Amino acid sequence: MKILRDVFMLTHFRPNQREAIEATLDGKDVFVLLPTGGGKSLCYQLPAVCTTGKTRGVTVVISPLLALIKDQVDGLKQKGVDAVSVTSSEDSQSTISRLRRSGRKPQLLYMAPERLHQGDTMNIITQLYENGQLARFVIDEAHCIETWGRDFRESYKLLGQLRKKYPHVPIMALTATADPRVRGDILGQLGIHDCLQILQSSNRANLHYEVCTRRGNGLAQIAEWIKSTHDGETGIIYAWKRDDCEKFAEELRSKYKLSAEHYHAGIEGSAKTQTQENWLSGRTKIIVATIAFGMGIDKPDVRYVVHQTLPRSFHGYYQETGRAGRDGEPADCILYWNPADHTKRTRLISSGDLDHKEKQHQLEQLQEVKDFCENEMECRRQQILRNFGEQFDPQHCRKRCDVCLRGEPMIEQDFTDAGVNILQIVSQLTKKGDTLSKTMLVDVFRGSNKKAVISRGLQNNPLFGVGKCYHKDLVTRIIDQLVKLGGLEWSFVRNDTWSSKYIMVSSGGSGWTIKANDVVDWPRRAGFQDAEAHAIIANEGHGAAGLRPSEGPTICKFKI
Questions:
Q1: H/E run at residue 483
Q2: Are 94 and 10 within one domain?
């Protein structure tokens, strides 16, 4: 407590911090999942300063971004902590010389993963290890192992070598964003399957979530919303492309008289730093940025985060919205999108250079975000937390999302047959050794002739196309409900490097039968036409485009 108070100027620990600190001081591997603003950095910074416990020496921190490294090191130095970094800057040479010499070593050594794998750095790490001066490895923003290691940062894949080369050095991995599949990937890559896992709820109770249909590029909507709701307050607008960031920031300044600057990876280093400092100090109120902006930036008073287009993944969406309201005060997260966003992104992914499995992975991630945008019947917070493997009672949302705020009346509709057929399809195919993503299951149920379906022979299933009269959005909702009720569950299958997410019948779901009086309500805002009537229309030659939303809202019921 003395170090907490005297060095870090804090009077108490936040939830789960003490447990993580005590475990790493005891020499254990630790995986820490805390929500954004939950105080992850203290979990390794305080132990690095401690002289008690089983660990001694330098805490080596692997961090993804140079700007983040600079912020962390500068902040620690202001607290009197001996923290250094090894980057591409000229100052790094003096740090390397100090590490090679005998004498007092720094308490924390920060570097990017690319630097870790360079020969001179590995030699220094090995020297520290052999001299008993290596306290722990810390992998900050550990979700990058999965999200970036899959495609464009090979160095993240190589972090698994740390356990092999330095088997007695404890490893701590920290993130705010990891569902069970991503957690499995992180632990597998690092070789720390038996670590202590500290998992805190990902719920950010002070954030208000909203999804809106975008008109044009949405800038007029966004500017009007900012002026009416958050005039003069600090916020972030996430755009897709660098050109969009520059164009939108200029238009916000010239047309709407708002204080805005742009930020993306293509900006020259000093200009990027200046823009960031302008925003952090409050001289600039709005940053219009690509996803290159925000990781690790600790600005407590961000009152809103706007997505101008469809995010590329649910993890990205959660990470980016998590930059709002870190002071615990209310903040808004509003997503503007258009179905054309999904079409455009799908085309880009499909025509890219990635291998087939990676394309499928990215397309499924994109579909999850689209499903979230289109699902106007379930609490947004419930949907977000379910994506991270958490159950959430919508009553606890307290109208802090657009769906719960509307609170519209419901009607009832029974989709028992569809639910039972979906369970049977999954059961039949998985018994044959097939694996099904949610998207593939929807396609089989509705009888899609997509190449991915036909090439695997899934059209030969006796129930193929049994749900052709159902709209795909409704089928997606039914599958989600079956997961929620425990009839279906997610299975995470690991290959040589990564995990894939498949759906299967749960142990309880395999014994489900229809019971006349066992009814489970499922609230929906957008209603659907009657299934039987629609099927008759389709059989009369009017096509089976799928059940489309009707005017009235509905509650879908399962008798299970």
A1: helix 472-485
A2: yes
Residue 333 has, within 13 A of its CA and on its CB side, a CA count of 23
**Could you tell me the pTM of the whole model?**
0.76
Number of domains within the chain:
3
Please indicate, yes or no, whether residues 448 and 423 belong to a single structural domain of this protein.
Answer: yes
Name residue 60's beta-bridge partners. Answer: 109, 137
Residue 391 burial (CB < 10 Å; 0-12/13-18/19+)? exposed
Q: Tell me the three state secondary structure of residue 395.
A: helix
Both tokens of 148, joined, read 């970036």
Distance CA 477, CA 377 (A): 9
Q: Which two tokens stand for residue 477?
A: 């909702």
Tell me, yes or no, whether 240 and 327 share the same domain: yes
Last residue of one domain, picked from the residues 199, 227, 245: 199
- 96 and 114 assigned to the same domain: yes
Q: Kindly state whether residues 338 and 443 are assigned to the same domain.
A: no
Give the SS3 label for residue 292. Answer: coil
Task: For residue 248, give the nearest of 265, 260, 234 by alpha carbon.
Answer: 260
Give the tens place of pLDDT for each residue, 122-139. Answer: 999 999 999 999 999 999
Cα–Cα dist 490/501, whole Å: 7
Residue 480, pLDDT > 90, answer no
Amino acid present at 315: H
Secondary structure of 60-117 as H, E, C letters: EEECCCHHHHHHHHHHHHHCCCCEEEECCCCHHHHHHHHHHCCCCCCCEEEECHHHHC
Q: Domain of 387: which CATH number?
A: 3.40.50.300
CATH number at residue 436: 1.10.10.10
The contacts found for 356-362 with CB under 8 angstroms, 24 or more apart, are 357/500, 358/150, 358/151, 360/437, 360/452, 361/150, 361/498, 361/500, 362/312, 362/313
Range of the domain at 11: 2-199
User: CA of 524: how far to CAs of 106, 327, 374, 411, 439, in Å?
Assistant: 57, 33, 11, 9, 21
User: Residue 395 burial (CB < 10 Å; 0-12/13-18/19+)?
Assistant: exposed
- Contact in structure between 358 and 151 (CB atoms under 8 Å): yes
pLDDT in tens, 167-217: 999 999 999 888 888 888 899 889 998 999 999 998 999 999 999 999 999
Last residue of a domain, one of 370, 390, 406: 406
Classify residue 538 by its DSSP letter.
I
Write the CA distances from 285 to 233, 267, 270, integer angstroms. 6, 19, 19
Going edge to edge, which strands form the sheet with 58-62?
83-86, 108-111, 58-62, 134-139, 171-175, 30-33, 196-199
The pLDDT score that the predictor gives to residue 511 is 62
